[in-house]
Backbone:
């Protein structure tokens, strides 16, 4: 059992998300930084998709009346912690990045919705009662563990997986709606992550881009990591709890391998974009996956 | 970037984990029906690595897992699925009729009077016009369980509120421009509210979660 003593700024139950609900207008949700979640779970001998608590900025304080083996997983450190019955865990503040995962050996037991434990905040669904955790919420620890608890993740692996501030992108379906100088401005400019960012989208402040005149956009399905240019010319990166359709032109799309980096962007961080081709994006995600699945990641 | 040209659709690169299937002009009703037929075929055809389908007015976004499959593989599967014959005519999507009982006016529809005045008709005329036609669900989007409907009579085209309400109750039926729809959950909103239904438009424990699905026919029943 886990008793929430202090839920921090925004803590939700997340796994790797809930596919195939797009026809009902529901996006995938799931961990904003799935790399950290997967490393935490693998360290504890859990299946990679086991549910955990995603903490934001401040972390949180949790009591374990029966004890537990847990891991706090974030970009620089993923370590197991053995808690005695009645012990209190104070996690955070989150540093570096903006999100950390409190993984528990056995996972967190919540009712599955369409096969997933993930909280979808705008849909008020999934996770613990479809909402962020509050003080004195009580969660059950599951029985998902399948392997042994490991000692840690090798530092050079964590360095290799560190979140990037230069996000690699491929060009979006409406990239040619922008004049060449606007596209160049987008690919060379520096953008600052706005305070007004969350799991639905990451808003960026920086050079505003102009559109070609006369282009009229019909609402269409929008993928994770799509970079829409809104009416004011500023980019927004659609994120895990995103709307499933959108009517703004998409200049580019963050490649899959760099999406976990988006989940660690903190308001005020500066980002840039680097264009790569689709074949390169594909090769990068295959390499990343092979690394995450390997045994070499452990100490 | 064009990935493949089919007889009635273009497959376009969208991201390294998605392909946009484009059926042409959104203004042509046949396009909408092709979109719905395609979404159903793609859902029924078991495609390895398929993660999501997002139909819209003229397109279906096909999302895949780039670790389990590749863009080339997905493009091939989409072409096969769309070429498969289901026995149903391609341009007339089979429709299910969903009737939505609505309490028009009063606290449930605080803008009914304004809408009537705007169109120089009586509230009863607005109700009659709104509930006498069949609407079609194009797709779900904007929010979980929010259906984009076509078919609002031109005579009911109404501008949005100048400033959105902070809280619109779940089930509210509104009009904005040429669109009408039902708010599936309490949220801020700028549509003119003419009524409210007690039907649960979205429920996570239901399969499918959204009461309305693309291709459904919708009729509003005044209570």
Residues:
């Amino acid at each position: 059992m886990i008793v929430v003593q202090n839920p921090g700024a925004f803590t939700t139950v997340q796994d790797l998300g809930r596919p195939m609900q797009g026809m009902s207008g529901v996006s995938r949700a799931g961990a904003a930084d799935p790399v950290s979640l997967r490393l935490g779970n693998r360290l504890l001998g859990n299946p990679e998709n086991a549910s955990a608590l995603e903490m934001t900025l401040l972390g949180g304080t949790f009591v374990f009346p029966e004890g537990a083996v847990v891991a706090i997983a974030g970009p620089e450190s993923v370590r197991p912690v053995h808690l005695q019955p009645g012990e209190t865990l104070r996690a955070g503040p989150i540093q570096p990045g903006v999100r950390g995962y409190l993984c528990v050996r056995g996972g967190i037991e919540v009712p599955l919705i369409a096969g997933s434990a993930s909280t979808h905040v705008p849909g008020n669904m999934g996770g613990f009662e479809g909402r962020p955790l509050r003080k004195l919420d009580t969660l059950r620890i599951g029985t998902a563990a399948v392997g042994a608890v490991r000692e840690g993740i090798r530092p050079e692996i964590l360095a290799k997986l560190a979140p990037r501030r230069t996000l690699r992108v491929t060009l979006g379906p409406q990239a040619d709606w922008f004049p060449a100088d606007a596209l160049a401005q987008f690919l060379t400019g520096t953008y600052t992550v706005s305070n007004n960012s969350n799991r639905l989208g990451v808003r960026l402040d920086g050079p505003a881009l102009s559109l070609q005149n006369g282009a009229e956009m019909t609402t269409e399905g929008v993928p994770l990591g799509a970079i829409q240019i809104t009416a004011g010319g500023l980019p927004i990166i659609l994120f895990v709890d995103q709307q499933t359709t959108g009517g703004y032109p998409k200049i580019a799309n963050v490649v899959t391998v760099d999406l976990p980096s988006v989940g660690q962007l903190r308001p005020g961080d500066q980002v840039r974009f680097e264009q790569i081709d689709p074949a390169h994006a594909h090769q990068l995600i295959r390499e990343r996956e092979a690394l995450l699945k390997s045994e070499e990641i452990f100490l | 970037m064009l990935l493949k040209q089919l007889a009635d659709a273009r497959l376009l690169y969208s991201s390294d984990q998605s392909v946009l299937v484009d059926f042409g002009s959104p203004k042509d009703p046949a396009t909408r029906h092709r979109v719905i037929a395609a979404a159903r075929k793609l859902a029924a055809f078991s495609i390895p690595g398929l993660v999501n389908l997002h139909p819209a007015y003229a397109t279906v976004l096909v999302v895949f897992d780039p670790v389990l499959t590749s863009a080339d593989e997905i493009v091939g599967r989409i072409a096969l699925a769309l070429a498969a014959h289901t026995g149903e005519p391609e341009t007339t999507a089979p429709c299910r009729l969903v009737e939505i009982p609505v309490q028009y006016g009063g606290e449930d529809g605080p803008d009914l009077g304004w809408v009537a005045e705007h169109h120089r008709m009586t509230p009863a005329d607005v109700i009659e016009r709104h509930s006498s036609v069949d609407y079609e669900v194009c797709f779900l989007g904007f929010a979980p369980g929010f259906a984009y409907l076509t078919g609002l009579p031109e005579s009911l085209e109404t501008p949005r509120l100048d400033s959105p309400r902070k809280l619109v109750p779940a089930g509210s039926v509104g009009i904005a421009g040429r669109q009408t729809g039902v708010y599936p959950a309490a949220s801020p909103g700028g549509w003119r509210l003419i009524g409210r239904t007690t039907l649960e438009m979205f429920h996570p424990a239901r399969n499918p979660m959204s009461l309305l699905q693309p291709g459904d026919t919708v009729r509003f029943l005044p209570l």
Remarks:
- Residues 2-160 of chain A form one domain.
- The helical segments of chain A are 34-43, 155-160, 180-188, 259-262, 278-293.
- Chain A has a mean pLDDT of 96.
